[in-house]
Amino acid sequence: MPGHAIQRRLRRGDWLRAQPGVYRLRGASASWRSRLAAACLWAGPRSFVSHRAAGHLYGLLSEEEATIELAVWSGEARPGVIAHRLQPTDRPPLREVAGFQVASPERTLLDLAATLVPSRAGRALDEALRRGLTTLAKLRAYLREHGRRGRDGTAALRMLLAVRDELDARAESELESRLLALMRRAGLPPPALQHEIRTRRGPPIRLDFAYPDLKIGIEAHGYRWHGGQQRWQRDIRRENHLKRMGWTVLVYTWDDVVGDPARVSAEVRDVLVARAAA
């Protein structure tokens, strides 16, 4: 389209400039994704979505946490876009996510480890494991191949992986991941995750965490899964059934795990010691 035709549409307000050479129609949504799409069109077909923007597309970060970030080979910086310049030898594997070319989950987690504080990067890692986007084995292999000394994020991601094992991959919520990390920091013995207990009648009962030999169960109750009267009554019947079978069940909420971790770890330790002595 000739330049004068574009300028006429801009003067009339039919088009709005999103990036150099990129326009959106008046009335079209200026959403986070449309701004990301405009940045990708400006950066060109060889660029890809990276860092916090990739983390959001994978479902690891909220939209509020996700800045518009791209990995680019060349080009000037633009307002509202963080552009990370790629090295000539940098050829990361890409995926298509929601219509965007995005760095692989392993590369994205390395970039997030370089960008976020360790606690937030750790939660993103746990969420990637829960969603099945990657595995600990794949991440360790990626670091061995690409995590050269001095590269941003390498040391941070290596530390996050060092304190995680296959138990973390089996956690089914952020609350479970936090409770598992709390127990690990307190030096408590590793529990079994998603432990099933067979019953004489009815389906098996599954506990978030369990010490089967001591008949101790631990439940991480978030409102999303345990809110509402029907679920509440079901949980009471379930826990009464476990008590009749000789189990001790501890139940913790988000406020317990995040707000009072010392009390939670002390209670778990006390029950472990008392059961072992008995």
Characterise the protein shown here.
This protein has 278 residues and is an alpha+beta fold. The chain folds into 2 domains: 28-164, no CATH class; 169-277, VSR Endonuclease (Endonuclease, Chain A, 3-Layer(aba) Sandwich). The protein has 13 helices and 11 strands. It has helices spanning 3-12, 32-43, 51-57, 105-115, 118-130, 136-146, 154-162, 166-170, 174-185, 223-226, 229-244, 254-259, 261-277, and strands spanning 15-19, 22-25, 48-49, 69-72, 82-85, 94-97, 100-103, 192-197, 205-211, 216-220, 248-252. The strands form 4 sheets. A 4-stranded mixed beta sheet has the order 8-9-10-11, sandwiched between helices. α3 packs across α4, α4 packs antiparallel against α5 and α6 (136-146) packs antiparallel against α7. The model has no long low-confidence stretch (mean pLDDT 87).
Query: What count of structural domains?
Result: 2
Question: Roughly how many Å is the radius of gyration?
Answer: 24 Å
What form results from the Cα inertia axes? elongated
- What can be said about the biggest beta sheet? 4 strands, mixed
Report, as a whole number of angstroms, the end-to-end distance.
Answer: 83 Å
Number of strands: 11
- Strand percent estimate: 15-25%
Q: So what's the oligomer here?
A: single chain
Query: Percentage of helical residues?
Result: 40-55%
Tally of contiguous helical segments = 13
Major sheet: arrangement of strands: 8-9-10-11
- Which class best fits the helix and strand makeup? alpha+beta
Tell me the series of helices and strands, N- to C-terminal: HEEHEHEEEEHHHHHHEEEHHEHH
Low-confidence blocks of residues: none
Q: Average the pLDDT over all residues and give the rounded result.
A: 87
